Amino acid sequence: AGAIGEAIEEMVALALLNPANPMARNVLGRLYLDAGAPQAALPHLMAASRADPAFREAQVNLATALLQLGRAAEAVAPLQAVLKAHPDFIPALDMLGRVLVTLERGREAIAPFRRLLALQPGDPEVLLSLANALNAAQETTEAAAILQALVARDPANHRALNNLANIELAEGRLTEAEDHARAAIASERMR
After folding, report:
1. CB 22 within 8 A of CB 58
2. What's the predicted TM-score (pTM) here?
3. For a surface tag, which of 18, 30, 96, 173 has the fewest beta carbons within 10 Å of its beta carbon?
4. What is each CA distance from 175 to 107, 149, 160, 168, in whole angstroms?
5. How far apart are CA 90 and CA 22, in angstroms?
6. How far apart are the two ends of the chain, measured CA to CA in Å?
7. At a CB cut-off of 8 Å and minimum separation 6, what does 16 contact?
8. Which of the two residues, 1 and 110, has the higher pLDDT score?
9. Which DSSP state fits 37?
10. What CA–CA distance (Å, rounded) separates 186 from 189?
11. DSSP one-letter string for 75-121
């Protein structure tokens, strides 16, 4: 457990002293998430969200726990509420896009990732997420172009290489798919 375990113990004690404190409940929930225990995090994040519906970090953490527990559909509403009040809140935009892709609503996931890209131009993680949403929405030409640009910028980007290989494979471009898959494997081994 180490440092996370000690932090959880401290936050449990604080939450027991004041169970209505949304900050303490959110921090405890986040610690449980970081420890890989979304089920343990959920009641604390729900309590924090109910105690302070405007607490945007608690809403995003709640959505994260719900997503990790396979309850992605329930994660949409808290994220939409956060974005209604704070349309440029980066963690909510990112999580909403991820939730929508998980729900196989790729076309809807494109908008949060495009907004995120406008806020963080050129960010490779955002570009990968946008390409994933575009691919899920059957917009493979644009997805492939983004992935090719990422590979041109960083030839060892194994995630971009792998995603590009998957698109090429689905399109029947076997030689290109094999080349990119081999490059992805090689770059992963070098990490």
Report:
1. yes
2. 0.88
3. 18
4. 29, 19, 17, 9
5. 21
6. 26
7. none
8. 110
9. -
10. 5
11. HHHHHHHHHHH-TT-HHHHHHHHHHHHHTT-HHHHHHHHHHHHHHST
